[in-house]
Design goal:
Radius of gyration: 18 Å
Strand content: 25-35%
Helix content: 10-25%
Bound molecules: zinc ion
Number of strands: 11
CATH architecture of the largest domain: Alpha-Beta Complex
Number of domains: 2
CATH topology of the largest domain: Peptide Deformylase
Number of helices: 4
Mean pLDDT: 77
CATH class of the largest domain: Alpha Beta
Low-confidence stretches: 1-36
């Protein structure tokens, strides 16, 4: 649950500051941190259940944030198709894929770019092991953008492998994950997907879903 505050509270920059770039009201954090995040115009999302606040960059200039940024610890909220702008979602998809490849990643979750909703990108190198029986005709070996992904079944058999993370630079951790998972999600058109993923695909999906729950490899 969240409240969108931007409709009731307006933080419009004055023209001079807007031209100058960064501005904002420190609300639960200090302005210096916001500057470091490159946030030039943003809004707040308040999560009343844990009294935390997330700050959303309103423009498309997304940036991958790193540990110990507290946004990485937020539990992402479901993407609401009725309330949110699908055109913007498509821009976020493009921008997240661009950022992921620019940093040689294989997956990227919305939380890592300070967006509060449940979606993630799975890079094409990690979609080869997806059984697309009911995945809406999607092919393996292409970039997948998964909205509201959830794991509905998983193998009891686990495999441990060294993992890295774009939000935990220079850290590698052995992480045990289920070898196989069954996933339910929506694609960018809102179509329901259900598919099986194994090996690397299963690992990347579990890693990205951890991000959406505020969990990092350093917790493993
Ligand atoms: Zn990661």
């Amino acid at each position: 649950m969240f409240f969108e505050l931007t409709r009731s509270l307006s933080f419009r920059a004055d023209p001079e500051q807007e031209r100058g770039g960064s501005r904002g009201i420190a609300f639960g954090t200090d302005k210096g941190s916001l500057d470091k995040l490159g946030m030039t115009n943003w809004c707040f999302y308040l999560f009343p259940d844990n009294l935390s606040i997330i700050i959303l960059n309103r423009f498309i200039m997304l940036k991958i944030i790193t540990e110990p940024n507290p946004i990485l610890r937020q539990k992402a909220i479901p993407f609401d198709w009725d309330k949110l702008n699908v055109a913007k979602l498509k821009k976020w998809e493009r921008e997240m894929i661009r950022l992921m490849y620019a940093q040689k990643g294989i997956g990227l979750a919305a939380t890592q770019v300070s967006l509060p909703w449940r979606f993630c990108v799975i890079g094409r190198a990690a979609t080869d092991h997806i059984t697309a029986s009911s995945a809406g005709g999607r092919r393996g070996g292409t970039d997948w953008f998964l909205i509201n992904p959830e794991i509905i079944a998983r193998s009891s058999e686990m495999h441990t492998l060294l993992e890295g993370c774009l939000s935990c630079p220079k850290v590698e951790r052995p992480v045990a994950r289920a070898i196989w998972v069954k996933v339910r999600a929506q694609d960018i058109t809102g179509k329901n997907l259900e598919f099986d993923a194994e090996n690397l695909s299963a690992r990347v999906i579990q890693h990205e879903l951890d991000h959406l729950d505020g969990i990092l490899i350093i917790d493993k």
